[in-house]
Amino acid sequence: MATTATITLESLDIAGDPVNVSKTTTCTKAGTTTDLDQTTGLNRVHLRSTTNKVLLAANAEGNDLSAKVYIINKATDPTLYCTITINAQTVGKLYAGDWMFIPWSQTDTSASIEIAATNWTASTGDIPVEYALFHEDTDFLTNA
Amino acid sequence: MATTIADITITSNDLLSDELSLSTSSTLTTAGSATGVTGTSGLGRKTVAGAHGQYTLFDGSDYTADKAHKIYLKNTSTTAAEYFLITVNAEDVGRLYAGDWAFFPWSAHDNDCDIKIDPSANDMTLEYMLLTDD
Fold first, then answer.
1. A14, B109: Cβ pair inside 8 Å?
2. Chain B 43-62, CB below 8 Å of chain A: which residues?
3. How far is C-alpha B100 from the chain's CA centre?
4. Which of A56, A62, A80, B44 has its CA 20 to 30 A from that of A44?
5. DSSP string over A75-126
6. pTM for this model (two decimals)
7. Amino acid A138: pLDDT
8. Are A87 and A54 in contact (CB under 8 A)?
9. A42 shares contact with chain B (CB less than 8 Å)
């Protein structure tokens, strides 16, 4: 059940010489070469909350198992961003079109991944966000 | 203005009963604008030698807060059990196992918002790149 994730980073002009990085990883269970076999599939939500909402709830059974999280801000207005936090610790801001792909260890049940449409107003419109989780914890309940 | 593009493709022929194929391209811009990011650390390589311990890869106080910085990390190990634990301001993000890579935004929103790596074994090597919005 091989699931692969490939990143390509390219720039001809951010430095004196071109940047060109391309790497592929096969998503596996923690500490093994066994493929991940669980996924939430690709989800889509429309955010309008300026305070944190749980996107993926940490689960005790998932503690230190392998999980990969993909999130993309599908807004087209470059000023609109989502703030991503884990256990209330801000990781970063996903601006329009930005995506992220991270391992998620669910170190404890407070380590939920939360998201906020921080600068949303009634006039900006909702911020569409897509996300997917690839994982090994069979006890994980989507949208729990 | 530099143009830097980050692409991701996630595929699987057998995880689901239908084929999974997800592909996205993002042009990396400064916070809240259409202007491209302007700085980079270049592609770096860090071996945490000897008795392994936590290492500060990026110090939050060295970068402007609340920008659209991006971080790329890759664990170059080929031993499946070896991982780097990635933390942001002491909060665990996740374990980057052998061959895994990660790409994420970093706000460096205060001086404590360091990115740290903690290898599970001695002499592990991480490749990294910071793209900065300063």
1. no
2. 43
3. 11
4. A62
5. --STT-EEEEEETTEEEEEEETT-EEEEE----STT--EEEE-TT--TTT--
6. 0.96
7. 81
8. no
9. yes
Helix (H/G/I), strand (E/B), else coil: A60: helix
- A48 near B CB under 8 A: no
Per-residue pLDDT tens digits for B94-110: 999 999 999 999 988 88
- Optimal mutation site among A91, A104, A113, A118, interface B, most CBs of chain B within 10 A: A91
B38-132, CATH topology level: Jelly Rolls (2.60.120)
What is the distance in angstroms between the Cα of A74 and the nearest Cα belonging to chain B?
Answer: 10
In degrees, rounded to 5, the angle at the alpha carbon of residue B74 between the alpha carbons of residues B70 and B75 is 150
The full set of domain ranges for chain A reads 38-135
Q: What is the pLDDT of residues B37-61, one digit of tens each?
A: 999 999 999 999 866 689 999 999 9
What is the mean predicted confidence (pLDDT) over B110-131?
A: 93
- Rounded Cα distance between A67 and A136, Å, is 7
CATH superfamily of the domain spanning A38-135: Jelly Rolls (2.60.120.10)
Q: pLDDT of A50-70, one tens digit each?
A: 999 999 999 888 898 999 999
Q: What is the mean pLDDT of chain B?
A: 93
State the smallest CA–CA distance between residue B90 and chain A in angstroms.
Answer: 9
- Token pair listed for B9: 């493709």
